[in-house]
Write a structure and sequence with these properties.
Layout: H1 2-7, H2 20-28, H3 41-49, H4 54-59, H5 62-69, H6 75-86, H7 91-95, H8 101-121, E1 122-125, E2 128-132, H9 142-149, E3 155-160, E4 176-181, H10 195-198, E5 206-208, E6 211-215, H11 221-233, H12 235-238
Length: 245
């Protein structure tokens, strides 16, 4: 596919960068004025690579709120943000735009709701923080859960969605699970290959060792969780990355 892509006039760039956005930024910067994005890039890199500090995450600054406001549920808002940045608007100009501010406020309120669910519906099993967000109407990535768990968890498993949900209804998605390493810990990443959990039942599941996900498979959440916890308890054998070397 890559050869065909290049033959058709495409170009491929492979670099070891902290984020895909950084690669695109570095490739295009010599040809396009991207100076208005410079202040955003360090946070984008930190988020995408798992290098954001717990303090920076808990502070929940405007860039994080803007990032969370972007969702496939609201393509119009995403296109609006893209248009603003592509026409040279600074972060301050985007955040102060009247059409953007309601979405930023929504992201702030949604985080508060998600934080409450994390606090009330997360339990730690052998250093795995299991968060039940299913049937709750909220979503979150792993940062919120691992920030709550702190030094007590090496990874987390988040259950999202609804038992009667569907991939065809973004506002009421099907049941799924996400797995994240606790990047807030020193050397918290690249210890265990969590993608093995994501592919234990769902052949289409996956991602990478530190962040991945899958759909819940029959017979259901409890059975899936039981197996995942069993694998996690045996993680030094079943999940340890060193075991594959």
């Amino acid at each position: 596919e890559e050869k065909q892509f290049i033959a058709d006039g495409g170009t491929c760039h492979r670099e070891s960068t902290p984020s895909a956005a950084r690669l695109a930024y570095d490739v295009l910067r010599p040809f396009i004025d991207l100076s208005h994005l410079e202040e955003i890039m360090p946070v984008v890199d930190a988020l995408d690579s798992g290098q954001i500090s717990r303090e920076q995450f808990m502070e929940d600054g405007p860039i994080l709120q803007l990032a969370r406001s972007l969702s496939l549920r609201e393509p119009g808002h995403m296109h609006n943000v893209l248009e603003l940045f592509s026409t040279g608007n600074s972060l301050h100009q985007v955040l102060s735009n009247p059409s953007i501010q309601p979405h930023i406020e929504r992201a702030r309120v949604e985080r508060e709701a998600a934080q409450k669910v994390v606090e009330e519906h997360t339990h730690i099993v052998d250093r795995l923080a299991v968060c039940r967000m299913d049937e709750k109407g909220v979503r979150s990535n792993g940062y919120l859960v691992t920030a709550w768990a702190g030094k007590n968890a090496d990874a987390c498993c988040i259950i999202h969605g609804y038992a009667d949900g569907s991939i065809d209804t973004p506002e009421r998605p099907a049941l799924s699970a996400s797995f994240y390493a606790n990047s807030f810990l020193k050397n918290g990443q690249n210890r265990f290959d969590l993608s093995r959990l994501a592919t234990a039942f769902d052949a289409t599941g996956g991602g990478h060792a530190n962040a991945c996900g899958c759909r819940i498979q029959p017979p259901g959440v409890e059975a899936n969780l039981e197996k995942w916890i069993q694998m996690w308890r045996n993680r030094d054998i079943e999940l340890a990355i060193e075991a594959t070397r």
